[in-house]
Specification:
The chain has 153 residues and is α/β, with parallel strands linked by helices. The chain has one domain. It is built from four helices and five strands. Strands 1-2-3-4-5 form a five-stranded mixed beta sheet. The longest helix has 15 residues. The protein is globular and about 35 Å long. The C terminus is likely disordered.
């Protein structure tokens, strides 16, 4: 169960940072899954489900370059998970240092992907913009820069 502070933090993140215009009632149900089926290889990361409508995969990447070859797979899994669970949208939120250069490289790769529909979105952010409840350091008490993007499949 999420604390009221976590709920508020995630709602602000989804509304203000990601630009989601979901109605207020959607935010009554928010879950955070750090070991989401299909995304277990992402460390640090978590899947946030918002009101049965929105899935947000939050990934912290010390080295965004390691995500570039994995982007197609992440979006394929995101789309499959979104559709199987009956959600409306899937958003991949990558938190990293050097977000400007990461945004350029990851966006370029995202735009090259096949099978991307208008309900799949990429957001590349400075990791400090991620909600505390979704950050690796808040979950583990560990060093936020120690983690990478996970193993490659």
């Amino acid at each position: 169960m999420n604390s009221p502070e976590d709920q508020a933090s995630i709602e602000r993140f989804v509304r203000e940072t990601l630009g989601c215009a979901c109605p207020a009632e959607v935010f009554r149900s928010i879950s955070i899954d750090r070991k989401a089926e299909g995304f277990e290889d992402l460390t640090p990361g978590c899947l946030i489900a918002v009101g049965g409508r929105l899935l947000v995969l939050v990934v912290e990447a010390k080295d965004h370059q390691s995500l570039i070859p994995r982007l197609a797979g992440l979006f394929a899994r995101g789309r499959s998970t979104r559709d199987a669970r009956g959600f409306n949208r899937f958003r991949l939120a990558v938190g990293t240092t050097g977000a400007d250069s990461a945004r350029e490289a990851l966006t370029r790769r995202f735009e090259e992907l096949a099978n991307i529909d208008d309900r799949l979105h990429l957001h590349v952010l400075d990791r400090r913009m991620l909600p505390a409840a979704a950050r690796h350091d808040s979950a583990t008490g560990g060093d936020p820069e120690a983690g990478g993007a996970g193993r490659s499949n």
